[in-house]
């Protein structure tokens, strides 16, 4: 009662946008590294707490912002992983500064950009306007392009350039799709801003012209799908993940891919609200399966540890797209759960990998051996995290994959075969690589880690707990959202 | 009769002419084999875009579209081409437009893409009014031709030009959609501007690192790393 009264007086939705925006300006001005790292962490913590307040706040659908059951899942996950990543980033970037890979000026830029990225992602999630959502995703892309190029090495510039080009093409196709959606809506809801407001579109979707809406969805799926990293438009992803600073890899894999996926889901909802449109499912399932199988094969040939896990992200985004494409209460539930588990596990992996690369001074898989002997905490953390992402029980990833496979067998048995094949392929590859990294005689190069293992431990603990026990309110909520997604 | 000089038919014809002109200029861009010439043709396309948008502003009685037209004229037809000109001169790469595919097949592919976009758009929009649907078909053609250019060119500057011409197509589509809110047009122009800054920074960094803006140099550097 008191909580709901307090929530009425205070609307958290704009606050999760203003905190990072203000923090970005401050961080651009503060010269001291220690102060800005602390500021970065506290801004992220505040944003996360505000996002939690959204849970008890009333659902709103104003002219600018929308908060409904669907995007709260994304916002809370987004701000939480952003917060833990900022904690990891503080220790990681401190090390980079000491070794001279980055200068203090770069760091100022890095911290400010980190907050701009968060503000943009939050805006993309809570905006009620298709156009604003598009702009926010574009801004998020541009900030990450700049951050991927932060080290200014040949490889980093190449990765940033490729990311920029492919990301821009994707985002351009998405804009074309957005314009088409407006054209579809305009004869029904009239000219002007109403034609771009989610809550208005969803109410009137039944009267839209289905043919043009279909074409629009194809553009939107291709456009935002590029940002999700779905095959065949995934080419930017491994480069961007492997060459940027590791906290950015964690944020890219754990968050930005989700935000793009959220955009696809919103448009899928719009299509689902109209009985006469084509089913978006088969398209999403095809792209999802293609990503899964491609990544499964590619995982075997990786020689760079960050690229390895970048391909693993492609695999899992493929799985999630497949799950939402399959649809139905179980598969949608599995998709939501898998997205949450993947974000937590993958960012934990990147936290571990970041420190591994720092102590070993290399990203080459062949030069990293026997971590469990030389760095027990880090090594075993990585073992647990990789086992979790590979889908071994009792981690939460196992549960979501199990649900997905059962649901596939029930509804589309002939698709279960490639799905399971892809899962096994990826599992084999990850186990193969993991045994090399973690066990055996340690390779030379064992600087002390001045790492905080806390973010990794917290993430892994959450993933393990989720595998054993999901709190009933969370289950009820995911069920409700799964029902919405149709 | 004179007071009815601006008939719906004339509105249609003029918009049609400008939109078709944009597609034609896209083909001209595909055909260029010198960077300076390419930049000039890009500037010409931006002028055509500004005219098309201004005509839409007049025909739809939507004054905010004049702003979009102005942005297209100032930034895309003047500022960006001039800046790229200077950059190309400074880098000394004005002769380099290395294409992956030669001009002939590229033009054929371009024609196929235009046909494709006409088929897709005209089939999908039987209900919309004729002006909007043809505008959309032309816009999609410009978008796809820009994409084709990005794929078939190796030089980073010409890839950037391809991307910006792609964005011209998007603006054409956005203005063709009657009453589309201003936020989108400004944001598109804004994104071009940001993109340009990013590109500027990157071109110099690429130059700094590779002594060339040929994207092929990336591949050489990458070597065996898949």
What's a concise summary of this model?
The complex is a heterodimer of chains A (486) and B (226). By secondary structure, chain A is mostly helical.
| Basic shape of chain B | globular
- DSSP strand count of chain B: 0
Order of strands across the main sheet of chain A: 1-2
pLDDT average of chain B, as an integer?
78
Unreliable spans of chain B: none
Proportion of helical residues of chain A = over 70%
Main location (chain B): membrane
Organism (chain B): Xanthobacter autotrophicus (strain ATCC BAA-1158 / Py2)
Keywords (chain B): Cell membrane, Membrane, Transmembrane, Transmembrane helix
Protein name (chain B): Putative hydrogenase-4 component E
Description:
Chain B: It is a multi-pass membrane protein. Chain B: One of its GO terms (cellular component) is plasma membrane. Chain B: Its main location: membrane. The complex is a heterodimer of chains A (486) and B (226). Chain A has 20 helices and two strands. Helices cover 79% and strands 1% of the residues of chain A. Chain A is mainly α. In chain A, strands 1-2 form a two-stranded antiparallel sheet. The longest helix of chain A has 36 residues, at 154-189. The two termini of chain A are 32 Å apart. With 226 residues, chain B is mostly helical. Chain B is built from eight helices and no strands. In chain B, helix 2 (35-60) runs antiparallel to helix 3 (64-91). Chain B starts with 7 loop residues before the first helix and ends with a helix. The model of chain B has no long low-confidence stretch (mean pLDDT 78). Classes of the chains: A mainly alpha (486), B mainly alpha (226). At the A-B interface, helix 6, helix 7 and helix 9 of A face helix 4, helix 5, helix 6, helix 7 and helix 8 of B.
